[in-house]
Design a protein that fits this description.
single chain; alpha+beta; Rossmann fold; D-amino Acid Aminotransferase, Chain A, domain 1; Dna Ligase, domain 1; 14 strands; 33% helix; globular
């Protein structure tokens, strides 16, 4: 990590880097993105950076520091964009393509890695080739006749309960555990409201683990942060939207109290997934450990994990002795390498 002297050798104050914190956006995670952006602005080192909020409304209108502007003007007005968007548009390669087009440096993964990680089925195909355990999964497209394939899948390939989720979404928005055939089609139709592709997948019963990865950390080009175990409470069956962003809805243990072999395996999976997708800067990989056979299933890689006060990645970094300000430093530096 680079050091920033407060002044040059002549005592002239150095120029602050202007950081445009990009937040909001059209996705269902708009409010989470605003919370991430606010937390970033509040924790950037004021001796190094001059932050300015770049907000995108739910209807796609851009503003810079509270003033309505067009998109090119916003992107060209800053030294680096700190991408605090989540979900559709912000995390799927599209806004990354815009920033590449306008030659604006930005934090997080590039176009291809973002698109691959956001598409849960395509990324799982890559993970299978890498030898990882992944849930058996069926992809459905809105408007197609999928009844026969769906019946075969839920009766012959897997058994209830199953998990239904949008193919490309984040923060567990739209994810449902379905216990009976009667509830399956309504869950699928709810998923289609969020995405034109829906996944029906094998339910893996086990313990939820997650592990962050950070570039240029611990004197390594890429390194895993401590593993966290997540136990939802108050009736939540998995780490859903409410348990992620509302206080007291989940127990998060960092470092996770699991066998050392499983702990190392989870870190290795997170590291490998980050690298084979081509992620940059930081990521977080979600997994399920099944203690009965000690398999660790990879669910997905988040290329822009939340940085809200309740988010997992900053807590794992803190467990490693890395404050949020220093974590933000590391993420910004990775965009400049």
């Amino acid at each position: 990590m680079h050091e920033y002297p407060e002044a040059d050798i002549l005592g002239v104050p150095r120029k602050l880097l202007k950081i445009g914190v990009l937040m909001g956006g059209p996705s269902s995670e708009h409010e989470v993105s605003l919370a991430t952006g606010k937390n970033i602005i509040g924790n950037l080192d004021s001796t190094k950076y001059q932050p300015v909020a770049i907000k995108i409304s739910k209807k796609g209108q851009w503003s810079l520091g509270g003033q309505i502007v067009d998109m090119p003007a916003a992107l060209k007005s800053v030294d680096i964009v700190f991408n605090a968007l989540h979900g559709t548009f912000g995390e799927d390669g599209r806004v990354q393509a815009l920033m590449e087009y306008y030659n604006t440096p930005y934090t997080g993964s590039g176009i291809t890695a973002s698109a691959l990680a956001m598409d849960k089925l395509r990324s799982r195909e890559i993970f299978k080739l890498a030898g990882f355990c992944v849930p058996k999964t069926l992809k459905l497209k809105r408007g197609e006749n999928y009844e026969a394939r769906l019946n075969l899948f839920v009766n012959k390939v897997v058994k209830f309960p199953v998990v239904v989720k949008p193919c490309s979404n984040g923060s567990s928005v739209g994810v449902k555990i379905v216990d009976s055939p009667a509830d399956l089609e309504p869950a699928i139709q709810e998923g289609f409201k969020l995405d034109k592709k829906v996944l029906v997948e094998e339910y893996i019963k086990g313990r939820e683990l997650t592990c962050g990865v950070l570039d240029n950390f611990n004197n390594q080009p890429v390194a895993a942060l401590p593993v966290t175990e997540i136990t939802p409470v108050n009736g939540h069956r998995f780490f859903n939207y409410d348990s992620k962003y509302k206080d007291g809805q989940a127990k998060e243990i960092t470092p996770a109290f699991v066998d050392s072999v499983i702990y190392s395996k989870a870190q290795e999976i997170a590291l490998t997934a980050h690298q084979i997708l081509g992620c940059r800067g930081y990521s977080r990989t979600d997994m399920i450990w099944t203690p009965g056979n000690n398999d660790v299933y990879i669910l997905e890689v988040n290329t822009l994990p939340g940085l809200t006060p309740n988010s997992l990645l900053p807590k794992a970094a803190q467990s490693s002795g890395l404050s949020l300000a220093r974590l933000l430093d590391a993420i910004i530096e990775s965009s400049r390498d």
